């Protein structure tokens, strides 16, 4: 849309209206002179063009909602431009009417694009998840500390925040810059909150050598720690939009003053206290690095991950995995199990493990999905080998044999899932999903009859079937960076 905006502007205003002659509907006697660029109507349309050229980039990168002040400003200015275009006197001349019509269409296009992005279902979903995170952090972290209590920072809170991060990464943006920007900003703030909450330094009570008294410097550092704890709460409130009074600049000044206070402490001759002070200074630095999020997301390179080096590295691995997968399936079709690139697949897993995600949740998710793709081939090869090598004895429990029969069916279905390249609406997808569900039901119907090995085998087979279903779901969820 944004590329369209400026392409139309060029076609509309890029050529002067001073060439060629036109005939009105009245005939040759009504022949008109070409319109000079300084014709009053054309001058007004050129002024509109300049204002549209200024508003266009703002509209195309706006990532807020319809109730935002910036949205209302742009909507108001575009509406005023539309009224001004409508008031241009064309004197009934077709050329002027055409220019006015194209100018109106351009402004209407910007208005429509602004409204579509601000009210897009994905934008509303981003806001819904952001609000859920805001409520969670407010209840568990911000409010308790404001009331003089202690924040509830535990595994449950960390897991809940991680679930919200994962759900944010799965929101579709359709390649729209405003939606990508909104998702990126929400993710960076939530990930910053996670980092702040997980990097707390506990207070210490180090003693002087040969003395039971606490070192004076430790007491001073602990006092600073209390202020750092308050600053952490203020930072979390800022990141989540829960602070009406504080600002990043104000909090930055407070943290910098705490650093100066720590630097002035005399901790010479005591390595333990020196190390404690170093930890607190590092924590302050960790809080300071999150205070530059005010303009985060304004740089397109930050949220347009198609150009990210880590993403390119992951995509190169995925291309290699795709080639190996095709080879494995091609050999399996003819019953040839000699092609077993497990060492190559393991090296790809090692490569993926070394990819730098820079704590970016979208890159993390891209890497996770690539790992799942590799592991799917590895488990397929392992099961095929196990089925070929299996030599059941006469004393094998009937229930155990039943589990292996299901595993044989699952192996065939997994080959189809590995080769599937469609969408969820496809009949082949629904057929695979139904067949896999039937295998789960078949496993559920197996009665171990007290046989321990059957219980273990059935549990592993159920997990295997669920992993295949999850992999099929992942292949068709149309996830994007």
Automatic annotation (TrEMBL):
- Say if the entry is tagged with keyword Chaperone: yes
Say which domain of life the source belongs to. Eukaryota
- Which Pfam families does this entry report, sorted A to Z? BAG
Region of interest: Disordered = 17-36
Task: Please name the InterPro entries in this protein's record.
Answer: BAG_chaperone_regulator, BAG_dom_sf, BAG_domain
Keywords (alphabetical) are: Chaperone, Repeat
- Report domain BAG positions: 47-118, 217-295, 344-385, 399-476
Give the protein's recorded name: BAG family molecular chaperone regulator 5
Species per Swiss-Prot/TrEMBL record = Poecilia reticulata (Guppy)
């Amino acid at each position: 849309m944004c590329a369209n905006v400026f392409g139309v502007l060029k076609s509309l205003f890029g050529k002067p209206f001073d060439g060629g002659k036109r005939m009105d509907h009245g005939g040759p006697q009504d022949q008109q002179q070409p319109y000079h660029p300084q014709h009053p109507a054309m001058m007004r349309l050129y002024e509109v063009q300049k204002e549209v050229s200024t508003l266009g980039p703002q509209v195309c990168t706006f990532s807020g909602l319809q109730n935002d002040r910036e949205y209302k400003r742009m909507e108001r200015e575009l509406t005023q431009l539309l009224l001004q275009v409508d008031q241009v006197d064309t004197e009934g001349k077709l050329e002027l009417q055409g220019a006015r019509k194209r100018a109106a269409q351009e402004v209407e296009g910007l208005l429509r694009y602004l409204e579509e992005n601000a009210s897009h279902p994905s934008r509303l979903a981003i806001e819904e998840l952001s609000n859920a995170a805001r409520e969670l952090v407010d209840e568990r972290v911000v409010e308790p500390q404001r009331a003089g209590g202690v924040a509830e920072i535990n595994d449950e809170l960390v897991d809940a925040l991680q679930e919200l991060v994962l759900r944010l990464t799965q929101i579709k943006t359709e390649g729209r810059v405003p939606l990508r920007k909104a998702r990126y900003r929400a993710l960076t703030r939530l990930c910053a909150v996670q980092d702040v909450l997980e990097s707390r330094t506990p207070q210490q009570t180090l003693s002087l050598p040969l003395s039971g008294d606490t070192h004076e410097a430790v007491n001073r550092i602990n006092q600073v720690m209390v202020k750092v704890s308050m600053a952490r709460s203020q930072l979390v409130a800022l990141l989540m939009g829960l602070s009406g009074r504080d600002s990043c600049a104000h909090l930055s000044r407070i943290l910098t003053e705490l650093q100066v206070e720590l630097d002035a402490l005399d901790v010479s001759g005591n390595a333990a206290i020196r190390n404690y002070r170093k930890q607190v200074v590092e924590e302050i630095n960790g809080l300071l690095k999150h205070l530059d999020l005010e303009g985060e997301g304004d740089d397109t390179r930050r949220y347009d991950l198609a150009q990210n080096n880590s993403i390119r590295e992951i995509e190169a691995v995925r291309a290699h995995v795709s080639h190996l997968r095709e080879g494995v399936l091609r050999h399996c079709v003819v019953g040839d199990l000699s092609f077993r690139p497990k060492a190559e697949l393991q090296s790809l897993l090692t490569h993926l493990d070394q990819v730098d995600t820079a704590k970016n949740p979208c890159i993390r998710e891209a890497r996770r999905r690539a790992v799942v793709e590799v592991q799917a081939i590895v488990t397929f090869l392992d099961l095929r080998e196990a089925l070929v090598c299996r030599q059941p004895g006469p004393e094998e429990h009937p229930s155990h044999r039943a589990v292996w029969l299901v595993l044989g069916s699952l192996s065939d279905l997994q080959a189809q899932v590995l080769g599937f390249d469609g969408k969820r609406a496809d009949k082949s997808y629904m057929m695979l999903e139904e067949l896999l569900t039937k295998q789960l039901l078949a496993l559920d119907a197996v009665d171990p009859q007290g046989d321990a090995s059957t219980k273990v085998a059935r549990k592993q087979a159920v997990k295997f079937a669920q992993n295949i279903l999850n992999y099929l779901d992942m292949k068709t969820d149309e996830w994007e960076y």
